[in-house]
Amino acid sequence: MPCLDQQFINNQWVNSQGQRRLAVTDPFRESVIAEVTAGDPADVDVAVAAARLALPAWRRLSGTRRADYLDGFANGLTKRREALIRLSSTNNGKAIAEAAIDLDDAIACFRYYAGQARALDARQGESITLEMKGVVARCYHDPVGVVGLITPWNFPLVTSAWKLAPALAAGCTVILKPSEVTPLPEQVLADIALDIGLPAGVLNLLHGDGQGIGAPISRHPGIDKVSFTGSNRVGEAVMRAASDTTKGISLELGGKSPILVMEDADPQQAADWVMAGIYFNSGQICSATSRLIVHETIADALYAALAERIDAIRLGDPLSPTTDMGPLTSAHQRDGVQRYLDIAAAEQLAAVRDARHRELPKQGYFLAPTLYRDVPVTSRLWREEIFGPVLCGRSVASEEEAIELANDSDFGLVATVISGDSERAQRIGREMQAGSIWFNSEQLVLSETGWGGFKRSGIGRELGPWGLAAYLEVKHIIGPAT
Q1: Tens-place pLDDT, residues 165-184
Q2: Element of type H or E holding 261
Q3: pLDDT-based confidence at residue 1 (cuts at 50, 70, 90)
Q4: Catalytic residue among 98, 180, 186, 252, which?
Q5: What are the Cα distances from residue 438, in Å, to 108, 246, 257, 413, 423?
Q6: 401 is known as an active-site residue
Q7: Phi-psi region for residue 208, left (φ > 0), alpha (ψ -120 to 50) or beta?
Q8: Among 427, 99, 96, 143, which Cα is nearest to 260's?
């Protein structure tokens, strides 16, 4: 059984100073498939020293040269594609078809930021138009410095790419902490770094948990910025720790996102989009549109269409091509979602579909895809992020009521609007208090468009040019014109 007890620092695998070991599981077979070090603050100290030593040369490298390395990461992932898809599916539990989508997204992200790195060269020293005569001003974009990147367990390699690619494109050096729950796929990033000759110290990959690695990264004075994706509870702790050294921070946190189905929508087509927004990755997605807001005139037809589709979901071995939904990623996550289902039972919520409507596989951390209707707005299931295959619905009588209900949330990551009138759907989308709004579509997450939310869903943006800007500082040089 593999034991991941080494850290990738300065282009070498070195023994971790951590004494604790954590189990890495296969959530379908409910078996331990590896152990990983919990890490130690001393590991962070050594990695930060390496990253700071590598920073001057890496930041002076042209964007075009850094882009070549980013293309190298994309090529390396492509070369290992089939093996990584199976490894991600095994460690995370997601259906293998979903793991394939993830890996292709990661590859596309590295390619996109290779293009952004090349374009950055042309932006350096741009002249600023001034009202004052006899003065010249030019704008430059400098890397933030050494950055700490902390990624979650639900999308291995994807969220790492979202952070690592723009950070390297900007000229930052990196301390990357993948999730201790799904560390196996992330190992490949170190292997590729060696294969492509990435300069030593530019990428340092540290295994560990929050205590051993995450918290030390957040408070380390030698780290200039932290980017974190995960829960609000941990994200707020990261923010507090980062505030002691006034370091920059980006947070991609929770969501309780709405999907609005208006009275002019086709219930059958709407049902397909609703399903895609909640049951992908067993509902373990921050962008899950887990609050269904449907016009009362088509509610019954929509619920009937959803019930048919939920019944058709095939649960099973995530490595099987016939599986639609795998298990939840860990027993801990399954048990957390089950607590919400227990609340639903105590509140006597009306279940259109739940565990009573199907037989679960004999093994694996499975929960039945669940749909409740007419859920009170005071219910914790309506207001809190569940992070599992649980959809809560409510009916409304008007567009105005739908918009008000959609925005009545502590979160604002995404939303979806479904209407028979495309212009109407886009107009309603403009009223949504969220970072990404889809209309008449499944969730399209694109490298070119920003990702991040309003309210408690986080701080800052990833992807697109905004993702690159998150790792750049703006500098102006001003003086007399000659």
Answers
A1: 999 999 999 999 999 999 99
A2: strand 258-261
A3: confident
A4: 252
A5: 20, 35, 12, 12, 13
A6: no
A7: left
A8: 427
**What was the pLDDT predicted at 232?**
96
Helix then strand then coil, in percent of the chain rounded to 5, is 40, 25, 35
Judged by phi (left if over 0) then psi (alpha if -120 to 50, else beta), residue 157 lies in left
A 10 A CB-CB count for 3 gives 11
Amino acid 116 reads Q
Nearest to 438 by CA among 461, 422, 460: 422
DSSP one-letter string for 13-39: EEE-S---EEEEEETTTTEEEEEEE--
- Tokens 């040019």 sit on residue: 465
- Residue 152's region, left for phi above 0, alpha for psi from -120 to 50, else beta, is beta
**Sign of the CA dihedral running 460, 464, 468, 474:** negative
Tokens of 6: 């080494």
CA distance 387 to 263: 28
Q: Domains plus CATH for the chain?
A: 3-253+457-480 (3.40.605.10), 258-446 (3.40.309.10)
- 3 state DSSP class of 369: coil
